[in-house]
Amino acid sequence: MTKVIIINGSPRTEKSNTTFLMTPFIEGMKKAEASVEMIYTKKLKILPCIGCFKCWGETIGECFIQDDMQELYPKLKESDILILATPVYSPLPGEMQNFINRLVPLIDSLLEIRNGRTRTKCHDDVNISKILAVVVGGWWELENLDLVVKIFEEVAETYTIEFSGAIRRPHAHLLRNESDKNKEILQTLEKIGINFVKEGKIDISDLEFVSQPLVDQEEYLERSKRNYLKRKNAQNSIE
What we know:
Blueprint lengths: L2 E6 L8 H15 L3 E6 L28 H10 L2 E7 L6 H8 L10 E3 L2 E3 L10 E7 L9 H13 L3 E8 L10 H20 L4 H8 L5 H22 L1
Parallel strand pairs: 1-2, 1-3, 3-6, 6-7
Antiparallel strand pairs: 4-5
């Protein structure tokens, strides 16, 4: 059975647009008979990495910081697929950044140069063979998500793990509105989950379908303006 671990970096946990997007995707993976566990970084105590590199020297493969990462490390090592799901928060929520930095004990200290870049690989007891990104944002343009996708891709490349691509959803809050298009997107997310587990890859056309604009840019800006004025009026009435 394929073991999937999802690290959800949204501070809004179950109520987040990230989780809303993940729900049909997870259902698809379960239908393909994968074992799936989603963990919220907000619910954990993950302290920042202090850059001591004891995990590369004194206690190889082990972090001396005693917090909730000690429970996560075994789960990560046993997983076949690591999914990093997060909203864009200039660029990452703090807990998600801490999690990424604390992955260093999983990798070996023996460095090599590949295509002009310094790389390493995971220790032999780490089973992760694929990393997939799921990135959501509130702004209209797809490009607003690119930096976070690049960060996750760099993690995969540095650790010599296959980067399986990214599910990207701009103006994700609008996906909650009931419409035929939104229903099709949610159904496609379930299909992506099934295919990813069964075939180990995702069709580019499905990714593009999930990322398509839900409204045009002009309408998005008009909605934003209305919400802005509504907030300002509410503030003025309190004052």
